Amino acid sequence: MKQSILCVDDEKYNLEALERLLRDKYHVFKATSGDEGLALLQEQKVSVIVSDQRMPEMSGTEFLKKSMRIQPETIRILLTGYTDIESVIDAINAGEVYRYVNKPWDPVDFQNIIAQAVEKYTLRKQLQEKNEALQKALDELKVLDESKTNFMYLINHELKTPLTVLDSYLQILGETNLSDDQQLYVNRIESSKKRLHQLVNNVLQLVEAEVGLTKPDFRKSAIETVLDPIFETFKAYLDTKEVSIEQRVQPAQVEMDKKQIQNLVLRLFDNMVKHGDHSESFVIQGEKRSDHYHFQFTNKAQKIPDDKLDQLLKPFTLNENIMNHSEGLGLGLSICQAILKTHGSSLKLRSDDSHFTAEFEIPLSR
Q1: What global pTM score does this model have?
Q2: 199 and 237 share a domain?
Q3: One domain, residues 354 and 259
């Protein structure tokens, strides 16, 4: 599509000369006065304006200044004689004129100047369009961010309010003289309520991480301060299951959100212990690798087909034959993945004929 050029000159001979010079490459509009040129700009979009300086009633610089109010992005070129040079320089300094061309003009030089002006206009329009697209994207992002926050407030209220009401009634029942059967029913309700409360918290934690509302508190922490409390938490349970742990953890200071990583390791450890074969030790490895700290958890377990491994990281996809997806909502490893996302990492899973391995890396510093 040809770019449009507006040529303004009170001398028709000059207009015809300009049209002959430009019409092969551009669509040329002509005006014999500043007023006619301004009226045409109200109707037609043009890339470049070429105006003579010396015209009756309205000079070229006056016309170009007024044209800026109609089409500010258009590139302006002034045709002038040597006697008009002072007013032309003032117009250029004011930002109203891109170039001036002395008369008589050299046809080749003039065509080159027009080509440069059209290119400048094209680049300016592209930049303007990109800026507008960027602004639109930023506005949409603000709306989305507000929507995410509102959604979290809503889901938090709608899911937790019924549980709060249930808590209140259970507390009242707990202060009432109940028969043995009634107490049994209340205990079952209490147990189910706790499980539902945990599921709600899991869903909220996953959604918060996925929509970017979880903001990590990155601080330097020793790796052992992350792992030791988890082993203490599981010690009694592991003793009853006769599970032994083999630790090969290299001490290091890592910049991370300690609570989030503890939550991650706790969930990962819990899933693997519950669904593993305890005939071998549960192996936990940790080592510094260049600018990252690498974690690897391995235990004896039945092989999981490769096409099923990805399901372990997908929430709400239940499969009784796959660890983490045989009970609840299948959120355990999904939450682990969401936590790692906030740390710029991801959970990788491997399974062979006799072992299951989960591994991830965290940057040593940020």
Answers
A1: 0.48
A2: no
A3: yes
**pLDDT by residue (tens digit) across 246-277?**
889 999 999 999 988 988 888 888 878 777 77
User: Residue 213: its pLDDT value, please?
Assistant: 64
Q: d(Cα 285, Cα 359) in Å, to the nearest integer?
A: 9
> Which portions of the chain are predicted below pLDDT 50?
320-329
CA distance 327 to 333: 13
Indicate the number of domains in the chain: 3
The closest alpha carbon to 54, from 100, 110, 115, 119, belongs to: 100
Judgement on whether residues 223 and 356 belong to the same structural domain of the protein: yes
Domain membership flag for residue 159:
yes
| Residue carrying the six token digits 């302006």 | 76
Query: 322 with 272: CB under 8 angstroms?
Result: no
Query: What are the respective helix, strand and coil percentages of the chain, to the nearest 5?
Result: 55, 20, 25
Is residue 256 within 8 Å of 343, Cβ to Cβ? yes
205 and 225 assigned to the same domain = no
Q: Distance of CA 254 to CAs 97, 249, 343, Å?
A: 58, 13, 12
